Amino acid sequence: MKRIPLFTIALMTLAAPLSSSFAVAGAGNFSVGYTKAHDISPNTFTVKKGEKVHIEINPSDTATGCMSEIMIPGLWDRPQPLVKGKKIVMEFTPQKSGAYKITCAMGVKRGVLNVQ
Ligand SMILES: [Cu+2]
């Protein structure tokens, strides 16, 4: 069995508080892209009830028409416009488990967020 050098453990200890404050990787943190051709990607998420969710969407295109805004009914009810270069941040803590649709402002499904 390989031993983990002590400095590696020290680095991991230092990195832990950094990763939580930058909120990029880790449970409940998601970085999402958007293009007109492929809509949001990824579009399926799994989170835990009672744990904070942080979703960042970085649109590469400006959406138009029906799918020009995004929301997650029941979790994020304010439709956000998808505008090229304009980051969208959604933060919430789901209290009820279930499969929540990710939609446009009028409810057309574009993805799903599973709360376990
Ligand atoms: Cu629509």
Structural class: mainly beta
Radius of gyration from CA coordinates:
17 Å
Top-tier CATH class: Mainly Beta
Number of domains: 1
| Name of the CATH architecture | Sandwich
Query: pLDDT below 50 for ≥5 consecutive residues: which ranges?
Result: 13-24
The main β sheet shows up as: 4 strands, mixed
Question: Would you count the extended β strands for me?
Answer: 9
What ligand molecules are bound, each kind once?
A: copper (II) ion
- In the sheet with the most strands, the strands line up as 2-1-4-7
Q: Strand portion, in percent?
A: 35-45%
**H and E string:** HEEEEEEEEE
Give the helix level as a range of percent.
10-25%
Q: Under CATH, the topology is which?
A: Immunoglobulin-like
CATH superfamily: Cupredoxins -  blue copper proteins
Question: In a nutshell, what does this entry contain?
Answer:
It is built from one helix and nine strands. The protein has 116 residues and is mainly beta.
What does this structure look like?
By secondary structure, the protein is mainly beta. The chain has a single domain, classed as Immunoglobulin-like (Sandwich). Helices cover 15% and strands 42% of the residues. It contains 1 helix and 9 strands; from the N terminus they run αβββββββββ. The chain has a 4-stranded mixed sheet with strand order 2-1-4-7, with no helix packed on it. It has a 3-stranded mixed sheet with strand order 3-9-8, with no helix packed on it. A hairpin with a 5-residue loop joins strand 8 (98-103) and strand 9. The longest helix has 17 residues, at 6-22. It is globular, with a radius of gyration of 17 Å. Bound molecules: copper (II) ion. Copper (II) ion (CU) is lined by residues 66-67, 104, 106, 108.
